[in-house]
Structures are given as structure tokens and as C-alpha cells.
């Protein structure tokens, strides 16, 4: 089989449609389209388009079991499923995240799908695309520069250089910059202090962009970003620097979602790209709401396993959407089941029914977790060439015993036709959603974290570090304790230890730190 890049380039030369034709499929007026060449465009709706004659589409959340380090093809399955729905004459729109250059240039690779289930133009999307990541990086570092400039020119806000919380960013992997000392070189080079870099997609600015409903909301959220504390421990915000207008201006185009297409010309609205292991892992509110208004089916994904991305989508993002999800599709692979059943990564291609049965405990917990939120669930078995018929049938039976339909898909090699059975099952699904959030904002911080740890992860208890306990007391004192929770932990395990696979129960979740992201509107819990 040809490589992803060969498939994408061949299709782009032979069959990729002008982006204006993709916009026509969604009845998007030309005045709402800003072209970036022939095959990419920005959508400039001020708000989601209102069409009283059309009800909102069905919202499909695509998530997964805990992955192997090789990944399980969740994005690829979502794209193939969308193409299959389109083949079945359903007006379908995908809302998905933009890639980060760090993984693209590293081991993980791109984030535009794979094989014959890809979004194109793939090279553009995986590299500079329409410049959203660069704009975010500029906004993040402009704020950092303004902070240091304020320190240099009198420090009227009395910012304590030791308690500045805002970090600089790059969208590449550069661990040498994680911890640095800046301001060296004399009095004209700024105040000497310790500083830090993070990857752009992990910055609060990315979360702010993805959770903003429009440009006015973006500006308001930016103004609420906490940048540090004064010498007498009072919080300092972007609004105190009066910088929210300038930073919003830098993001004036990045706030507009991007329109592209799959290899089979299904419309894709691609916008935002937070990681799910260290951020909230979902594309923008704007993109998802647009997909709901423009299509009969809106497909969106949440990063990594359902314990991370799906939990955050359901507890942080869903309350802010125009519609609750109608169904969750959990992507599973035979190899990930065997990996979670104790098989080494190098041997997951070998048949092993016992390991598959043992590893099914991981998928089972994800299935039961989604039902706790009141969502109907389907399982997409992303089938690889080494998977045997007996293994696939065994997995289907294990799911059937839980009352869940599991269907094999072969979208990587077959495109949309490789998911027609899954698409038809989705259309035929009669069960209605009874969405309920896991916790209320009024719950205590401890209770919110404990509910996620015990109900979703299966933890025995939560152990807070002395630092996290001090921070929790401070958050309560400042009235910041009513925000939802965004837990940062490994994607490979339900626990906070990447080596503990399967579905562990008798473990403690260790909370090291709790960081308020007041612009995004959640508390980041570092485990």
C-alpha cells in the first residue's frame, strides 16, 4: 500500500476540489469565505449561522480506549466514518483539531488521518496551514514580552518576578528551553529571572481560543488570564496590563475556523489544537457549533483515550455547546487490547486470545464510563492486516455481552466504504442520549477531582501534595474553586503511571499541583 503522503499527493493532483465547491455543499455564502489559495479557506461567521428551517445536526463524539505508543487511528476512523455517512447521502461535517508542529516533526507524525481516510491538503495542514499556530505563538510571546517590559520600566503593578506564572511558547519540541534564565546581558536586557517555555498547544492561550464563542468572548477571556502575583500576593491579570485588545488583534484571523476537505470531499472544519494529556484536547467551540448548524451529522473527536479527551469534552466543553452529544463512538484495536492485556508492543501483532480477553477490561471501563454520562455507545474496531477473524469476532462478542454493538472498519485501506457498516449502525441507532455531567461546578475541588479519579479512572483515592493542598486553600480563598477540572496525566493508563495498563483499581492518583487557568475557565490539575 502507498504511504500517506503518496496517497494524499496523488489525490490532490487528480481529485481535490476547489474549496469553493466544498463551501457550496454546505450552502456557505461567498461573503463568509476567505480563500487561502484554492484548497483552504477561513470561515468568517461572526456567530454560528442561524437557519430557522434547519434543526441542529446529530453530534457524534469519537473517542478511544487507552492507546499504545503507536496510536490507534482515532482520527483516521473519524474521517472514514464521515466519508461513509456522506456515501449514505447524509450531509456530514467534521470538526477537528489542527496539528502541532512538535508531534508532526517528531515521532507521532501528522494529524490529518491516514491512508485513504485523510484530510487534504495534508502537507499544508501538517505544516503551516493558515498560520493559526504562529498567531497563537506570537500572542503568547507578546504577552510574555509585555510582562518583562513592564518589569523593566518601573513595575507599576508591583509584579513579583519570582511569581510570574505566564510562560513563553514555541510549537516545536525543544526541551532545552523548558527551564531558562532570561534578562542576562546588563541593565538594558531586562530583569534577570527564571522563565519557562512550553509547546504552543499546551498554553492557556490555545484553550482560550478553543473555548471562546466569538471575538468578543475571546477578548474577555484573554483579559481574565492570570499572569502572576504582586509582592503582597495579589493576583495580576492581562487586563491590568491593558493588553487584551492587542492580543485579540493578533488572533483576529486565528479565531476564524478553517475549511478543508477529506479525500472523498467531505467538508472538514479544522480549528484549534490543544493536547488532551496536558490540556483539554478538543477542537474549538466555534468549529463544533458551526458543524452542528451546517450538517445533519457533526463528527468531532476528543484526544487520546476517553478517560482524558472524552471526559474533558463532556465536563468542560459540552456545557458550552449549542447541543449535547447524541452518541459516542469508541475506537478500539486488537493490538491495543493485547497491549493492555500484558503483551509487549513488539508482539501485539501475534494472535493471543487470552491477552485480548484480559485487555478488554480497559475498553469495558471506557464503555461503562460513557454510559455514566448517559450516552449511547458504538465501538469501531479499527482493523489492521494482522488481526484475525477469530480475534475480531471475539471482541465483537465481548462487546455484545455488554449490550454494545462493535463493528470492524477498514478505512485506512478502503476509505469511506470501509466504514459503511458503522455508518449505517449510527443512522439506525434508536437509543437517545440522557446526558448528565459527572460533577457540578459547586462541588468542592477535592470532590470534583475525586469523582473523576474514582468514577472515570477507577482510583482508590486521591493523594494531594502539600503544595497542592496550599494551592487548593488559596483557590477557595480567592473564589476560584467553582471552575471545572482539567486533569493532566499520562494517556497510556487510567492511572498516573504509564506502565500500569489494563483497568487498575487499587491505585492512588497523586495530585502535585493545581493551576488556575482563569481565561480558559478551568483548573489544571497536574498529576
Q: What's the CATH class label of the largest domain?
A: Alpha Beta
Indicate the low-confidence ranges by residue numbers.
none
Q: How would a textbook summarize the main sheet?
A: 12 strands, mixed
Overall outline:
globular
Count of individual beta strands = 24
Helix content range: 25-40%
Strand content: 15-25%
Q: Please give the domain count.
A: 3
The CATH H-level superfamily of the largest domain is P-loop containing nucleotide triphosphate hydrolases
Tally the helices: what do you get?
19
User: Cα distance, first to last residue?
Assistant: 41 Å
| CATH architecture designation of the largest domain | 3-Layer(aba) Sandwich
* Secondary structure category: alpha/beta
Kindly report the CATH topology of the largest domain.
Answer: Rossmann fold
- Rg to the nearest angstrom? 23 Å
Mean pLDDT, nearest integer? 94
